[in-house]
Amino acid sequence: MLATDVVVVGAGYAGCYAIAGLRRARVDVVAVDPTGTMDMLPRLAAVAGHADAATDAAIELTKLFPHLKIVRGKMKRFRKGVVTTEAGHRVRGRVTIITAGAQPTEPTIAGLANAFQLRTAADALRLRAAVGEAEDVVIVGGGATGVQLAGALSNSGVANAILVDSASRLLPEFHESLGSHAKDLLSARGVRIELDAAVESIQPNGVVLEDGTELIGLPVWAGGFRATMDAFKVGPTTEGRLNIGDDLRVEGTKDVLAAGDAAAHLDSKGNLRPMAAQTAVQAGSGAAKNAVRMLRGQPTASVAMRDLGWVVDLTGGRGVAQVGPFRFATSGLDRIPPYLHDFIDAKTLYEVGGVKAVKRYSPGRQTTPPEGLDLEFLQHYLG
Ligand SMILES: Cc1cc2nc3c(=O)[nH]c(=O)nc-3n(C[C@H](O)[C@H](O)[C@H](O)COP(=O)(O)OP(=O)(O)OC[C@H]3O[C@@H](n4cnc5c(N)ncnc54)[C@H](O)[C@@H]3O)c2cc1C
């Protein structure tokens, strides 16, 4: 059995920020992760839709963290400080940080398994290949993932996009203006948008709506994500996310922390925070700091989280965003979100892997800020 100071289970956004913080503190760390890459989830729609290069989907962990000890595999069991993978490898940490993310939701829709998913770099590359052979793509889900995929497809022109949602507007989780401007942009690019349209079944070649309408095309499920931490019995969960204290310690445990989509992060009103990269990176850093305190026998500290907002990049130099009190959801201002997206990706890579990581992997296309963009504003709100 491998023994270490800290085991990080899942090397995505939260896990990589945790690993970076632990390495800076010169703590011995082992990552348990099935792919050995950091998947750039907010880039996946652009990759799948042929708007960005396939290489934008992920970066190898060893390029971010030279000599990082990685156990390739999925955690199957966690008992008494020992992580056991599906292949039977075992790693014991004095502290464990669980950052294993989430999975696409699986509602009871007949034929859901026929749909492509978009959660991992592998999903994006599979979908990219299938999209290359398809004339039409039916995307089920008008949230951020579905809207970004429709944006990428309509920008690249590789296939026609049909976007379906049972809600009466796009991006229902954000301010109305973001959804309505995204709808205008996508419609102008020829995307067919079907709202108030519940899906009854999914076939290999399309979907059938509850009113009997058939939409023909490659089906993609973009109906949201759910953590599955209940399966591991590490601690109590809410909607599959581990219940944590304000120091990110899993309730009922002494030496297990959780961060990112796998953790039930609450806002100041006690509501579950949405699953977001910005939450994951702040929590990953906070988990690393508290893990170091635990190793040193010091009391842990509460981890403060800032609400930074959302960027929905439609590629083609357009998108919508809400950053702090500012909304970018009108003609002209919609040029800013793709730049913000590139900026955030570069910032993420820099914070995780330093300048070398930014040089080795520079995703996105837009390299110069749109005219009038105040860089001080960016620094202020994005840190
Ligand atoms: C297509 C898409 C677009 C998105 N766009 C945005 C956006 O624009 N802005 C935004 O803020 N958020 C966005 N999100 C959400 C954001 O990417 C996630 O909230 C964020 O990645 C969560 O970070 P995480 O580290 O918790 O999980 P992840 O980044 O998913 O990392 C989890 C890691 O755990 C690994 N893992 C899974 N199961 C196990 C296991 N059993 N054992 C070990 N390892 C395991 C996975 O392989 C992965 O490497 C998007 C998500 C998707 C899918």
Explain the overall architecture.
This protein is of the alpha/beta class. It has 3 domains: about 1-35 and about 75-100 and about 225-295, FAD/NAD(P)-binding domain, CATH 3.50.50; about 110-220, FAD/NAD(P)-binding domain, CATH 3.50.50; about 310-380, no CATH class. Helix content is about 30%, strand content about 25%. It is built from 9 helices and 23 strands. Strands 1, 2, 5, 6, 7, 8 and 20 form a 7-stranded mixed sheet that branches. It has a 4-stranded parallel sheet with strand order 12-11-10-16, covered by helices on one side. Helix 1 (about 15-25) packs parallel to helix 7. The longest helix is centred in the last third of the chain and has 25 residues, at about 335-360. The radius of gyration is 21 Å and the shape is globular. The mean pLDDT is about 95. The site of flavin-adenine dinucleotide has 34 residues, from helix 1, strand 2, helix 2, helix 5 and helix 7.
Distance between the termini: 40 Å
Beta-strand content estimate: 15-25%
User: Which compounds are bound in this model?
Assistant: flavin-adenine dinucleotide
The strand count comes to: 23
CATH A-level architecture of the largest domain: 3-Layer(bba) Sandwich
In brief:
The protein is built from nine helices and 23 strands. It has 383 residues and is of the alpha/beta class. A hairpin with a 4-residue loop joins strand 14 and strand 15.
Q: What does the secondary structure layout of this molecule look like, with pairings?
A:
Elements: E1 2-9, H1 13-24, E2 29-33, E3 37-39, H2 44-48, E4 58-60, H3 61-64, E5 69-72, E6 75-79, E7 82-85, E8 90-98, E9 103-104, H4 121-133, E10 136-140, H5 144-156, E11 160-164, H6 176-188, E12 192-194, E13 199-203, E14 206-209, E15 214-216, E16 218-221, E17 225-226, E18 237-238, E19 241-242, E20 256-258, H7 277-295, E21 309-313, E22 319-323, E23 326-328, H8 336-360, H9 375-382
Parallel strand pairs: 1-2, 1-8, 2-5, 8-20, 10-11, 10-16, 11-12
Antiparallel strand pairs: 3-4, 6-7, 7-8, 9-17, 13-14, 14-15, 18-19, 21-22, 22-23
Helix pairs in contact: 1-7
